[in-house]
Write a structure and sequence with these properties.
By secondary structure, this protein is of the alpha/beta class. The chain folds into 2 domains: 241 residues, Type I PLP-dependent aspartate aminotransferase-like (Major domain) (Aspartate Aminotransferase, domain 2, 3-Layer(aba) Sandwich), CATH 3.40.640.10; 132 residues, Alpha-Beta Complex (Aspartate Aminotransferase, domain 1), CATH 3.90.1150.10. Helices cover 38% and strands 15% of the residues. It has 15 helices and 12 strands. The strands form 2 sheets. Strands 1-7-6-5-4-2-3 form a 7-stranded mixed β-sheet, sandwiched between helices. The protein has a 5-stranded mixed β-sheet with strand order 8-9-12-11-10, covered by helices on one side. Helix 2 packs parallel to helix 10 and helix 13 crosses helix 15. The chain starts with a helix and ends with a helix. The model has no long low-confidence stretch (mean pLDDT 96). The structure holds pyridoxal-5'-phosphate (PLP). Pyridoxal-5'-phosphate (PLP) binds next to helix 3. Its cofactor is pyridoxal 5'-phosphate. This is cysteine-S-conjugate beta-lyase. GO terms for molecular function: cysteine-S-conjugate beta-lyase activity; pyridoxal phosphate binding. It is an enzyme of class 4 (lyase).
Length: 381
């Protein structure tokens, strides 16, 4: 097999048709002709499969070293499909710092339908081990969390979960297969909001699941085909195109993040920086060094108590005030007032999300310009 960077660019299926096109075309076809009644056709209806979607699913399966990929219309659709592997009466252990939309899915949708969940700090292996019950069927977590960039070990949690015959489902939106391959570390299912780094350009929403075994693939296929939140061919093509440059984008995201961190470290108005490689004595640093090739392009920081985070972000001129992450352009948000606003303040503070916390998704602009923008905004507060 060729190396990862070659797979990114060339992993898609070549010779898809007779025209010599180097890319799989956008097949705008919801239905496909049967040569004759009862023929064993590969394609029959878009919800069940479309060649453009299939091509990008195939690349993702290879990138994650999995059995099969499944592309969805959003990250949440992928998460819903992955959690549909479980049944009423099943118990799942979930990370206590997972994406807000996933919490909403769990609390407002799945719990009322009979699934049980226990929130656990997945950085604490003993706490994970202690949370198993006789009906525990799965563990769901994010190896790097949002917005505090806490790192959990896929290896260790997978080992514990498999002793209990529980499935390990990992949302690896923040790292992508370029930096970490959870299936190789023991996970059974890896999923992404492909809206973020895999797509990479803030121009569509998508989700991706990659399964480790044929049995899981068959189950997810049935769920996807039944629930139907599939990725449309136009977006499947955009995702294919985004993935081709994942490596060079991610390298630059990290390079820019490191330069910004060096600047923030020298700024007395910054109280704390959250990024897994900042504290080399930490467990986070140990795990990220052992299980990933880098920490990605998102970082958070707190301004000193009393300084106005709202005024700071309102003063930024180049960096865009917006939720989401993983795009070419730099995005900034204040979790307490934006992405995590729904969480009551006492709970939010317990999670470590202060009003002074600012999250930055570092883009691909020149780092000097990003630092100059941050610097002029600091001068306003
Ligand atoms: C954005 C995000 C999601 C949800 O994905 P959508 O594409 O917005 O539906 C899930 N998990 C993480 C970690 C995310 O950042």
């Amino acid at each position: 097999m060729v190396k990862f960077n070659t797979l990114l660019v060339r992993g898609g299926r070549p010779n898809d048709n007779s025209t010599g096109a180097v890319n799989v075309p956008i097949y705008n076809s919801s239905t496909f002709r049967y040569p004759k009644l009862g023929a064993d056709v590969k394609w029959d209806y878009e919800r069940s499969g479309n060649p453009t979607r299939d091509a990008v699913e195939d690349v993702c399966a290879k990138l994650e070293n999995g059995d099969r990929g499944f592309a969805f219309s959003s990250g949440m659709a992928a998460i819903h499909a992955a959690l549909a592997l479980f049944k009423p009466g099943d118990h799942l252990i979930i990370g206590d710092n997972i994406y807000g939309g996933t919490f909403r899915l769990v609390n407002d949708f799945l719990k009322p339908r009979g699934l049980e969940f226990t929130e656990v700090d997945t950085q604490d292996a003993d706490a994970v081990a202690a949370a198993f019950k006789p009906n525990t069927k799965g563990v769901y977590f994010e190896p790097v969390t949002n917005p505090l960039l806490k790192v959990s070990s896929v290896k260790q949690i997978s080992q514990i979960a498999h002793q209990h015959n529980a499935l390990v489902v990992v949302d690896n939106t923040f790292l992508t297969p370029y930096l970490q391959r959870p299936l190789d570390l023991g996970a059974d299912v890896v999923l992404h909001s492909a809206t973020k780094y895999l797509g990479g350009h803030s121009d569509f929403t998508a989700g991706m699941i990659v399964t480790k075994t044929k049995d899981l693939s068959d189950q997810i296929y049935a769920i996807q085909n039944t629930i139907g939140a599939v990725l449309a061919p136009q977006e499947a093509n955009l995702l294919r195109r985004g993935i081709q440059t994942l490596n060079i984008r991610m390298d630059r995201h990290i390079q820019n993040a490191e330069k910004i961190i060096a600047y923030l470290q020298s700024n007395p108005k910054v109280a704390k920086i959250y990024y897994p490689t900042v504290d080399k004595a930490s467990q986070d640093y140990q795990i990220i060094s052992d299980e990933a090739k880098g920490a990605g392009g998102v970082l958070s920081f707190e301004v000193q108590p009393g300084l106005d985070a709202a005024k700071f972000v309102n003063s930024l001129q180049l960096i865009i005030l917006a939720v989401s992450l993983g795009a070419a352009e730099s995005l900034v948000e204040v979790p307490a007032f934006m992405s995590h606003f729904e969480i009551p303040k006492p709970e939010r503070l317990k999670m470590g999300i202060k009003d002074e916390l600012i999250r930055l998704s570092v883009g691909l602009e020149d780092a000097d310009d990003l630092i100059a923008d941050l610097d002029q905004a600091f001068q306003q507060i």
